[in-house]
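Hey,
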Amino acid sequence: MKYCVIGLGYFGYNLAISLSKAGAEVLVIDNHQDKIDDISNKVTTAICMDSTDKRTLASLGLDEMDAVIVAIGGDFEGSLLTTAHLQDLGIKKIYNRRTSKVHERILNLMDVHEILVPEADAAEQLKNRLMMPGLIESFKLSSDFGVYEIAAPKMFIGKTLIDTNLRSDYKLNLVTIKRKNTEKKIFKSKKAEKYIVIGVPKPDEIILDGDILVLFGQDKDIKDLLEE
């Protein structure tokens, strides 16, 4: 998988390193040579340039990336201009680090793929989601184990919990299922989109389309399941 991280502040640096360690091809861009020198041997490619230069951006083949993450910190104008250029270049998935409520409001108007809170934990969370498509959320309990939310795989839809063989085939335990609440509210015509938690699933619980499975296990086993 290929990703581009623009801006090597605390968040961008942590994200780039995490993605690289997870096996992704990572292109990083920053306009400070010292930051590029520091990370150049830890990622696939590191380029010192001004990301607001649309012509140079266009020459990098960013449309081949699985996603571009704009992690620019203090330069409010630079972040917005870079994002606008990326949209003009047809980049489909743009994640943007917000620096203020005003910045977030403008990014919402620009309709970027997702707005990120600049924390080291957020960088780790995003790395997991980028490297494991289908992962909704994760919470690490140790270096080896964690709790993961994933959209129910198509191969499990209509099957009972016992028929999925989650524990024997994938070494994963189902903690619970989050299911869309389709009950109509009295004063609203639209169906509620909030999820209900069904509690501890029984062996004969049938997995439905749209369910979110909350699983306990290891990164590698979650990744194997999602890849399958």
